[in-house]
Structure formats: C-alpha cells, structure tokens
Write a structure and sequence with these properties.
elongated; single chain; 24 helices; alpha+beta; six-stranded mixed β-barrel; 822 residues; twelve-stranded mixed sheet
C-alpha cells in the first residue's frame, strides 16, 4: 500500500468515526474490556511464569528434593541428606542451605521482628548477591559454634540503623544474642523469599550430623556442561545407597528417591496450571469481544453498501476497498489496545487486591507485576490480532457487493444485508459457545468454593484472635523458660475483660505444622515406623480456646509438667488409622524416635482422643495428629521449635480485634518486650486456606459474567439489525394479515435456533475442557449435572431476552410506514 493511500484511509476512517461516535465508543469499549482483561492476567503470568528469577544464570539454579513415585516432590530436607548431597553430587556446584524465619531486633526503644534467612557459606556465591560493604560468611562461620555474624540488607540497614557507615564490625542484638555485622548487601537486590530478607545469619550444620528433621531447603547450580538428567541419575544412585545405610531414615521408603528441579519450575509448579487456565479463560473473553466488534463492523459495512458500490463504480478496486475497511478496523483495535493497556494496569492492582493466595514471584504487594516490554509487546500483538480477527470478514463481505444490483435496488434489497446477517449469526453462535464454556467453569468453581466453605474445620473460629511471636535466642532455648512465659502470659491475658480463654501453640490449625513419625510401644513393625502425622506443642487451654471436642479420656492440665509422666493427646483420625481394633488409651507411643537427638525421650502415654482438626487445605482429609504439652518438650526440641514464630490464641467474648492492643501489651510485658506481629482473627487465618480457590473463582466468574453480557449484546445487535433490514418484509406480512405475535415469535424463534446451536457447541466443548480444571474442584464432579443444566438454561434465557426487545419492535412495525419507506 502506498503511503498516500494509507494516509487517505486513516483520515477517512477518522472522519467516519466522528460521524458515528456511538458506534466508535461501543467498539472501542468492547475491545478495551477484552484487551484490558487479557493484559492484566498476562502481566501476572509474565511475572510468575515468563520472567527469569532475579539471579545470575537462573536456568542453571536447581533445588534438591526427595521425590516420590505417587506424589509430588518434597523440597524440605535434613542435615543428613544435605551432607550426603554435598559429598556425592559432583554435577552441582555451590550447594547451599536456606531456611526462612523471624528473629527479634532487641532494642529498648523500639524492638521489631526481623525477616531472617539462615544460610550456609555458599549461599551468596550461588545467588550472586553483591555486597555494598564488608564480606559474607566463611565456611568456619557456618559450622556449629562457628561464630555469630550477620549480613544485613540495604533496606534494613537504612531503616533500623540510619545508614550508619560505622556499623560494619559492630554488634547488634538479634533475639537477645550479639551478632557482629560483617556485610551490607547492595541496594536493589531481589530475592524469591516469602518476604524481603532483612538479615542473613549462618545456618550451622555439622558435617557428621545424623539429624533427620526436615526444616530447610537445599539449592545449587549445575556445573558447566552438566544436565539435569545427569545429576538426577547420580542422585538416584545416592538415594539407593542412603536407603541401604539408613533403613529407618525419615520419608525414604521404597518409592522415594532424590532429584533436582530447576528452581523457577519448583517455585511456580503449584500455580502454573491455574494461571494457564485463567489466561485461556480471558482469551475467550477477548474472542467474544472481537466477535461483537466484528458484528458491529458487519452491520456498519452492510449499511455502507451503496457508498462502497459508488466508490467501486468510480474506479476503486476490491483491494483498495478492503484496505480502507481494514484500516478502520486497525484504528479501532489500536484505540482499544491503548485503552485496554490502561484498563490492564488498573486490572493488575485489582487482581492482586483479590488476595491471590500467595502466588510466588509477584513481589511484596505485587511489586514485581509491572508493565514491561513483554506486556507491551503482548498488548501490541493482541491489538494487531484483534484488528485482523474483527476486520477481515466484514471487509471481504462488503467488498463483494454486486455493483449493478446495489445501485439499482439500494441497501435493503441488496445481497450484502443477507450475507452480513449470515456472518453475524455465525459470530453470535461462536459467542454463545465461548460464553457457555466460561460460565460452566465459573459455576464449577463456585460450587467448589461452596463445598470448601461447608467443610467443618474442626475448630470454632469465631471470636478468636491469633498473634505470632519469635522466641529464638538463648533466653528461650530451655523448655522451662518457655513454660514460664506461657504461664505468665496466659495468666495476664485471661484477666483482661472480654477474654474467655488463652493458650499457646507452635502451629495454628489449617496452616499445618511439622510432620513426625510415631511408633507404638509393644507393637511389631512392618517398616521403620507405624505412621506419620502433624505434631503440635500446646498449652492446656488450647482445646478450650478452639472448642475442640474431647471424645475420650482427658485433656492436658497444669499438672502435666516437665517432671510428670510424658503424655500425648491424639485426634480421631489417628485413633482410627492405628487402632482399628484396640484402645489407644491403653498404649504408649514414641514420637520422632530415631530421627534426631531432640526426640530421645521416654514414651508418651495416650491420655485423650479429640475431634479432627484440618491441619491444611480444606480439600484434604484431616491427618493423624499428635498434641503434646509445651512444658514436656526436651530442651533440644524446644530450641529448634522456637526458632520459628510460635502462636498465641485468645478466645474473646467481643470482636477479637477490639482487644488486640491490650493482649499485645500483656504479651510484651510478660516476655520482656518481645515484639508481636501478624495479628489476625482465626476467621482470617481460615480464609487463607481458600484464598487460591477464591481467586480462581472470582476471576472466572468475572470473565463469565463479561462473556454473558457481551453475548447478550451480540444477540441484541444482530436481531436489531435484522429487524431493521427486514422492516419492508415485516410490513408486507402484517399488511397481508399476519398476527403481530407471529412476527414477534418469528424473531424469537430465530434467536432460539442460534442459542441452541451455540449451547450445543458450548456443551460439547465444555465436556472436553472441564478436565483441565478437574484438579481445582472439590465436592463437585467435572460433569456436574446441576451445572450442565443450569448454565445452558441461564445463557439461553439471557439470549432470548436480548432478542425479545428487537422482536417486540418488529411486532410494532406500522405496515404503511414500512411499505412507504421501501
């Protein structure tokens, strides 16, 4: 196309849009909706799935895992496995350990919780974290008793220490322990931790450790020229040897092995399927928007057949006419793309405000989800594609107008109107089919969410406040010190007006906890242990706070002290799994025996059986669970547990957040100023367990509703135009005595045929496509009859309602006016 022709086409298109502002605004709005929604979802997909993680040579970074034939990999590992991997894996360099947690910056004026990473010496070299000042850890400093040193982030250095240039070499107090600051990480460094890391301190692992507790992750970098397959073959051999040498090793049954996975793939493995489904769903919305705009262009082109015929009579070739019409479509698409990009940027914020259930790599408050070159390129390509999709068919049909017939008979009698009607009908059928697929997916996820929320969590969550506190440091390493803190804190909190009960726990229900093996005393073993289950250390009031029912036996009391007989309470699931015929209250169990020195203690007597509590997502059955009194922990196990953030739970007679400040004050008074953070109601905690389902359901519902509205607009537009074109015919029918209701029914029946065709195609597609979301469903089958009956009914009803308005207009046509106009 010559440049002067293009310029003429653009100027003519702009003048045409100014003459039809309503058409232009509707078309641009439809495209902006489709492109904007697609851009917003793609921005999240880009940040999570497409962008490399922010490290040097990220494709060669790997994560070690214990793999299982019948389930996914487990990335948490133990000292024993970590040491084996460092010794026997020659294809991976800079193998390092990482554990994320919280410590306390101890200051008399303003103590605060510090987001902390415990790492081994190779960590900084592995991830290429540059330092602005100082140095990183030496190998000696990451051995037991190797020294207490810390590397700080630039942000923490600025926030907590006012960019003190003399801080290197000085000591700061982290959880009441002095740590020498040896380095400051350069500003702008990104990490893939759950929260930005404030401080890195040594993760001390003895080279001869036999500890089997899985509490950290191991990463490394593939050596030059080494492939994943080569390393995994090495690790398979290592796993076989490990199983022979340590037959009672935790989680190393016959189906277990060792392996590595690319770090980025490991981080996004849980969210990749859902993001792909959402991207596919929003693409359907875009296609429906394109179909609507194509319908508008068809109607507009059919109304311009006389103009196009005159241009052809004056010498314009078919290619020139198609060029003009495609230019108009391209301008609409570009305008829709620009508006869609703006809507997409707003949509990104809305997406993240929906609480997407801890999607990895999106950054703090979605900071990593930005409009970068990939998003701009994607939006540009989508705009070009929509121009082609929307404009090609209308342009081809309009350019085929019969010159003589059109000039002789006018638009109403020409064949272009019939062709536009046929093409528009096909587009509406496609819209209906796409809308039905989206609505079916949304309905299945809505049913899933209803099922999830009807699951009994096993605890009474109303009017319960939860607070987190880190007890890491020498002050609380002894179990007796934690026991005294619990007694002081609970005593103080329970004196507050409005408090019903208070308790301490290492983990909260729903959020899950550490899983340990158990062995029943006196029972023969077929394997290394009799079973596994979550393990929680609690104070006596825990069951009262959550109203967990006692089914048999008794609960903990203040008499279950460190010098009393060891006791344990189990849940109903454990009783049913391991005591199908016997009585658990007659037995003793060892918990974690053989997995580490912290568990070397006398057997515990089972004193009670309580109701099941969900220790994880609601779509999983409750697991066998063990509760032990916090006062009866060994010092070694207590020291390991309090490195994380323990929980305080308080039942109140009023809205729990109303007592938040008073409870926080009492805890700080009892603990000597230890900061309290992450204060949430238990309802907020349980809400997190369905956050991902909420996110998927909310988006698919929004897309489905948009598709429903766009499909209704498409049906209305088609039949409004059809009635306008057929007005002379309708006038003749009425003049010959046809009943007005027959005319109305004629239009509605035509709409019903299109709706039936669209529903049939949509149902066939849905039967095949629902298998892609079957993994996200709970309490509902992919081919749920309620959904597959209700959705077609609703969609058909909306389509018929949209057609009823033009049908009613057809029934009101004045025969005289119609014939006079013809």
């Amino acid at each position: 196309m010559r440049s002067d022709h293009l310029r003429q086409d653009i100027l003519y298109a702009l003048r045409a849009f100014r003459r039809s502002p309503g058409f232009s605004m509707v078309a641009v709005a439809a495209l902006a909706l489709g492109i904007g929604a697609t851009t917003a979802v793609f921005s999240v997909v880009n940040a999570v799935l497409l962008k490399p993680i922010p490290y040097v040579d990220p494709d060669r970074l790997v994560v070690f895992a214990t793999t299982y034939r019948d389930s996914g990999p487990s990335y948490l590992t133990s000292d024993q496995k970590f040491n084996l991997w460092r010794r026997q894996t020659t294809g991976v360099q800079d193998i390092s350990g990482f554990r994320y947690g919280i410590t306390n910056l101890s200051r008399s004026d303003s103590p605060e919780q510090v987001q902390t990473a415990w790492v081994t010496a190779d960590y900084f070299r592995l991830f290429g974290l540059p330092l602005a000042r100082g140095r990183t850890f030496t190998a000696d400093e990451t051995r037991p008793n190797g020294g207490q040193v810390a590397v700080l982030s630039d942000g923490f250095w600025r926030r907590a220490f006012g960019r003190d240039p003399q801080l290197i070499g000085k000591k700061i107090s982290l959880s009441d322990s002095p740590y020498e600051v040896i380095g400051i990480v350069a500003p702008g460094v990104e990490t893939v931790s759950p929260q930005p890391v404030d401080a890195w301190i040594p993760l001390a692992i003895a080279s001869d450790s036999t500890n089997q507790v899985h509490y950290f992750t191991a990463q490394g970098r593939l050596a030059p020229g080494v492939t994943l397959a080569t390393v995994n073959a090495q690790l398979q051999i290592a796993a076989d040897g490990f199983r022979r040498d340590f037959p009672k090793a935790l989680g190393m049954g016959p189906q277990a092995s060792f392996g590595v996975q690319v770090m980025h793939d490991a981080l996004v493995s849980n969210v990749r399927p859902s993001l792909r489904i959402l991207l596919g769903a929003v693409t359907f919305v875009l296609l429906i928007a394109c179909a609507n705009v194509a319908n508008l262009l068809l109607v507009r082109a059919a109304g311009r057949t006389r103009e196009i015929a005159i241009r052809a009579a004056m010498g314009a070739g078919r290619g020139r006419i198609i060029s003009q019409l495609l230019t108009e479509s391209a301008l609409l698409s570009v305008s829709g793309g620009v508006a869609g990009l703006v809507l997409g940027m707003l949509g990104i914020r809305m997406l993240l405000a929906l609480n997407p259930g801890n999607i990895p790599l999106v950054g703090v408050n979605g900071s990593a989800v930005v409009v970068d070159w990939r998003v701009l390129l994607f939006t540009g390509l989508v705009s070009i594609a929509t121009a082609v999709v929307c404009g090609t068919v209308p342009a081809l049909l309009a350019s085929r107008a019969d010159l003589a017939t059109t000039l002789k008979k006018g638009r109403a009698r020409s064949g272009s109107g019939a062709r536009a009607n046929t093409a528009g009908a096909l587009l509406v059928v496609g819209e209906m089919a796409l809308a039905l697929v989206l609505l079916t997916g949304a309905a299945l996820l809505i049913r899933t969410l209803i099922a999830l929320r009807s699951v009994d969590p096993g605890v009474e969550v109303h009017n319960v406040l939860t607070l987190r506190m880190s007890l890491s440091g020498p002050r609380f390493e002894k179990a007796a010190a934690v026991d005294q803190l619990i007694r002081d804190s609970v005593g103080r909190i329970e004196t507050l007006p409005g408090v019903v009960a208070a308790a301490y726990s290492t983990y909260l229900p729903v959020e899950g906890g550490a899983v340990f093996p158990y062995t029943i005393v006196g029972r023969p073993l077929n394997g290394p242990f009799h079973g596994f289950g979550p393990w929680t250390s609690v104070s006596p009031g825990y069951f009262n706070v959550f109203k967990i029912p006692l089914l048999r036996g008794r609960l903990f009391s203040d008499q279950d002290r460190a010098d009393a007989a060891r006791v344990v309470v189990i849940n109903e699931a454990m009783a049913r799994q391991s005591w199908k015929d016997g009585d658990p209250l007659n037995d003793h169990i060892f918990i974690g025996k053989g997995t580490g020195p912290e568990f070397e203690e006398p057997a515990r007597q089972i004193i009670g059986i309580v109701g099941n509590v969900h220790d994880g997502p609601f779509d999983r059955n409750p697991q066998p669970t063990m509760y032990v009194p916090a006062a009866q922990l060994t010092d070694g196990l207590n020291a390991r547990i309090v490195r994380g953030a323990v929980a305080w739970v308080v039942r109140t007679a009023v809205e729990p957040h109303a007592l938040q400040a008073a409870i926080q004050h009492e805890l700080q008074q009892a603990s000597g100023g230890v900061p309290v953070a992450r204060i949430r109601s238990m309802e907020e905690v349980t809400g997190q367990s369905t956050a991902r389902s909420d996110f998927n359901m909310s988006l698919l519902t929004a897309f489905g509703f948009s598709a429903l509205v766009l499909a209704a607009i498409g049906v209305y537009g088609l039949f409004a135009y059809s009635v306008q074109v057929r007005t002379p015919e309708i006038g003749i029918r009425l003049a010959l005595g046809a009943d007005r209701s027959v005319v109305r029914n004629m239009v509605v029946l035509q709409a019903a045929r299109l709706a039936a065709a669209g529903v049939a195609i949509g149902l066939a597609s849905s039967f095949g496509l629902t298998r892609f979301i079957s993994g996200f469903l709970f309490g509902v089958k992919p081919l749920d009859p309620v959904v597959f009956l209700a959705v077609p009914f609703v969609l058909s009803a909306v389509a018929l309602l949209a057609a009823w308005l033009p049908a009613r207009r057809a029934g009101r046509v004045d025969p005289c006016e119609a014939l006079r106009a013809d």
